[in-house]
């Protein structure tokens, strides 16, 4: 049985529609936009017909940058960088996966995530090896890692009315229109549909 880390953003929504895993896992780890991400992911899971699991683990004490609501650390490659974020999320999902009987946890990472060390192929290969040797033998995959977001959306065939639920803002539950997540959302929407909505 497969699960997807469904953040409620464009990438994970497109992967959900394309791959159709049985379970969606959304994690509230203390990020500022958690409420909106959970609402978006819940609606998408309902629309697609996936079981939706929500995990809440407060990691604000180790957060950094836009997502945490404080200054990014000096080593941050971009303003929204949160230390070891993908490693945390994959680990939490895999831990829940033991209870759920999962064989695989997928993420919605795309090629542009390569600006983060934990968004690169070598990271996902390493995480796959780490979880595979542990009890349960859960595998980790990132099926869209070689695609841009626009390529993923087109390839997935996700309808506009489902993608419209996406919440991409890094700074809060209402889109700020200025963070890197909002800008990406507008740019991808314009590239695919000719207009930003």
From TrEMBL:
Enzyme class: ligase
EC identifiers of the protein: 6.3.4.20
Annotated SUPFAM superfamilies: Adenine nucleotide alpha hydrolases-like
GO molecular function terms attached to this record: ligase activity
Pathway(s) the chain acts in: Purine metabolism; 7-cyano-7-deazaguanine biosynthesis
Signal peptide: none
Protein family (similarity comment): Belongs to the QueC family.
Key word 4Fe-4S present: no
Species whose genome carries this gene: Cognatishimia coralii
One Pfam short name: QueC
Keyword Protein biosynthesis in annotation: no
Keywords noted in UniProt: ATP-binding, Ligase, Metal-binding, Nucleotide-binding, Queuosine biosynthesis, Zinc
InterPro entries linked: QueC, Rossmann-like_a/b/a_fold
Descriptive protein name: 7-cyano-7-deazaguanine synthase
Superkingdom of origin organism: Bacteria
Gene3D superfamilies: HUPs
